[in-house]
Amino acid sequence: MKCASDIEVRDVEEMYINIDPIQAGGRLTADAMKAVIAYADGYSVCDNCRKPFRLDYIQKPPIAQFHADLARWLNMDTARVVPGARRGFQAVASSLVERGDPVILTSLAHYTEYLAIEEAGGVPREIPKDGSNRITADAAAERIEAVIREFSRTPPLLFLDHVDYQYGNVHDVAGIIKVAHQYDIPVLVNGAYTVGIMPVDGKALGADFLVGSGHKSMAAPAPSGVLATVEEYAGKVFRTTEARGDLTGRTFGIKEVEMMGCTLMGVTVVGMMASFPHVQERVKGWETEVAHSQAVVDALLSIEGTKVLSEYPRRHTLTRVDTRESFDRVAQQHKKKGYFLSNDLKKRGVIGVIPGSTRVWKFNTFGLTENQIRHLSEAFVEIARDNGLNCL
Amino acid sequence: MSKRAVDAVFQALFLLSDIRFLLRETAPDHELDEGERERAATILEKVRRQVTILEEELVG
After folding, report:
1. Cβ–Cβ of A37/B13 closer than 8 Å?
2. Which residues in chain A have Cβ-Cβ distances shorter than 8 Å to B18?
3. Interface pTM, i.e. ipTM
4. N or C terminus of chain A: which is more exposed, having fewer CB within 10 Å?
5. Does the global pTM surpass 0.90?
């Protein structure tokens, strides 16, 4: 079925249980889907844009209120919607980092943090992970000391992933921020895998900047996200333009430089807004989500040879597993090679594992129902049994 | 201008979106329990009402 000339309808969420690690938290809510239908046209939220002509001032739909609600919900002082978490990283790095400055991030950081540092002219310096793939406060302290010795100055910014995208491990954010603040280094917390799926309190963590992803974890269309700050940095990151045309004398009101004026002007922001009440509610069910994740991980661990590379017991729904001694052994003999696993899963109504992956791979169980969790767990075990692997 | 027809289009699309999400929640087997079947029946009845409005407004 096609929705336009050569564009297939996307029906994977209706037809399958989707465990793609990056897609789980961004699936829309029904209300967001309805808002998207109503606001699909380009500048659709601008019908009632009035002076001072800025997105976060629009009252109808209630975008201004949404900004205030977002900041309050995250327990931060100011918030702006941005086209993806990466644009939040970019805005902060561009505001705080000067050419040649060292900027600290972790060895599990998302690549867009490196790009934000690079674009600002900074020099990335990584905090190493420990043997269990965690970033610790001690490691952060050691690295900060080393970087200050190397550059003879204090880094102007430290990026820290609340939960990393590689292992889905929950890091000691509050502890690391405490260390960073002892050196007067502001910290940006990347909450792309936390804001919108689990409770996050910016002030409790000590974050100077808190960034979330709408399309990764807030049930919103892409690209969308949120950048929230404490008061101390709001004026710097959300500074308004001072540009003036030399011939025309034109000026540009209160447009914010790092936001490039307005950011999300249609389906993205109304999608975020429509999902927001559900998102606020769903984070309260985080323990159930973690229990679901644990159930699937335990089913996988019942397959002889399977290992979990993420921290265990699980504290998140994104998990990295090592099946080199289980499914990959099957793949060596199977006529479909490594594709047998994704093929067999698809036959059982499950997608989201990269086709061909049987060695080290990730999956995310966020948002699945009890029945779907059971179905998924049974699918893994059945595939293992059908292919001669021992299960406990 | 038929505001009634426009409202009916949106209402029908929203109701069908609810069906779409019912399909998502019950994937991959789409085996609905009694409560879900009742929910589907209620929604579909409402869709029919909106289609009737559209026929009245646009077809006559």
Report:
1. yes
2. 30
3. 0.97
4. N
5. yes
